[in-house]
Amino acid sequence: MLLIVNVYLYLYMKYTIFLLLPWLLMAQTEEQTYEVLQTKSDFEIRYYPPVMMAAYVSNSNNSSGFRSLFRYISGSNQSQTKIAMTTPVHMEKQEQGSSMAFVLPKKFDPKTTPLPSDSQVKVYEAKGGYYASMRYSGYTNEAKEKNYTKLLKTSLEKEGIEIAGQPKVFVYNSPFNFVNRRNEISFPIVWKE
After folding, report:
1. Does residue 107 sit in the same domain as residue 89?
2. Is residue 4 pLDDT above 70, yes or no?
3. Domain range spanning residue 83?
4. Given CB 3.0 to 4.6 Å as the disulfide criterion, which of 71, 81, 118, 173 pairs with 177?
């Protein structure tokens, strides 16, 4: 009987830790800063200050670049510096291919950012800018991205807000976080305060 109780206790602890791990990791993950300027019924107007990014651009839709970017932050860079993972991951579809970018922690600037060893990974300082962002939950996929892009575009047109570029998908959670997932579709916009 004691053995059965110990087995159940072990399994309970093991799976409790497994379920809590995503929340523990999220609590330690730095999030890209932004200022909410206005909250509309289904989206927000935000200002994002300049930030350092590491990006991978692919000429096909088959390669996201996640592995190359993860190797870069894991120390496969010219100074062998390990870089903390941040959120969100930026993804953008282009006419030919796609891009993925990691936001680098605030402590990095153009002088202190490690140079990549992989020639397909590029580091740069993203300019600050204004964005309209619409949040959605669950795992992102092409159908959801198309749907929320259409919804946000329609809302922006109704509000008379000018779109200034292609939409981006922001993914905030690790693939191992199964609940309370956060994704966003964001359009750069023309905004005057």
Report:
1. yes
2. no
3. 52-126
4. 173
